Amino acid sequence: MNYDPKPSVSIAEPLFGEFISSSPSLHRSLEALLCITAPSLRISGQAAIAKIKESHLHPHVQMWPTSFSGLSVIVNRETPRHRDSGGGPTHFDALVSAGTHKGAHLEIPDVGLTLTYDPGTVVIFAGRLLSHRVPCWEDGERICLAYYMKDCIHERYGVERPCWPHLDYYQKMMGEPYKGRQEKLSSEMKKRKWED
């Protein structure tokens, strides 16, 4: 890759700094969710952001609060069915629903899923692999904060694409109480199988 990525023009706007500094709990929550759902993605995202911060000294770049390398704000717009083209196949997007709207749904047709998409909802999924859309809603203002990672940014800064999350990670994270419940459930299922 022969170009040096630059921060977007909007990141230099004073309102951007206000937005970042006024929403620390949102960004901490996104980081926690990413840590739980895709820990290797969070690590690679942090590595890319650290390298971006080394090469771009604008104060708002230095304030960037998440492992995601991009943010789009979508306001009062139906979103047609699409896949996100810039991320890697193992990259997850985080969609944050905000505003005053009612009756919105996020549809993920590839897996036959329709989710209630009320204000306060956060959905993390592989937006490059799974097509998605938000059709009309009943009323009110609808805001979507779409956080994502760009594969070309990771490539430019030499950050490896993470692997998919594995079940063993979640089992380790859950600890002994989880393993005990799983063993009990497995034992009960075996008994049922023999009884049937």
Query: Count of helical segments?
Result: 6
Structural class: alpha+beta
Q: How many separate domains?
A: 2
CATH fold field value of the largest domain: Double-stranded beta-helix
Enumerate the strands of the largest sheet in spatial order, edge to edge or round the barrel. 1-8-3-6
- Computed Rg: 20 Å
Helicity, in percent? 40-55%
Principal-axis shape: globular
Order of helices and strands: HHHHEEEEEEEEHH
Arithmetic mean of pLDDT = 88
Distance, first to last CA = 61 Å
Looking at the overall shape, the CATH architecture of the largest domain is 4-Layer Sandwich
Key structural traits:
about 200 residues, alpha+beta, Double-stranded beta-helix, 2 domains, 4-stranded antiparallel beta sheet, two-stranded antiparallel ribbon, globular
Any overview of this molecule?
- This protein is of the alpha+beta class and 196 residues long.
- The chain has 2 domains: 157 residues, Double-stranded beta-helix (4-Layer Sandwich); 31 residues.
- The protein has 6 helices and 8 strands.
- The strands form 3 sheets. A 4-stranded antiparallel sheet has the order 1-8-3-6, with helices on one face. A two-stranded antiparallel ribbon has the order 2-7.
- A hairpin with a 4-residue loop joins strand 4 and strand 5.
- Helix 2 crosses helix 3.
- It is globular.
- The mean pLDDT is 88.
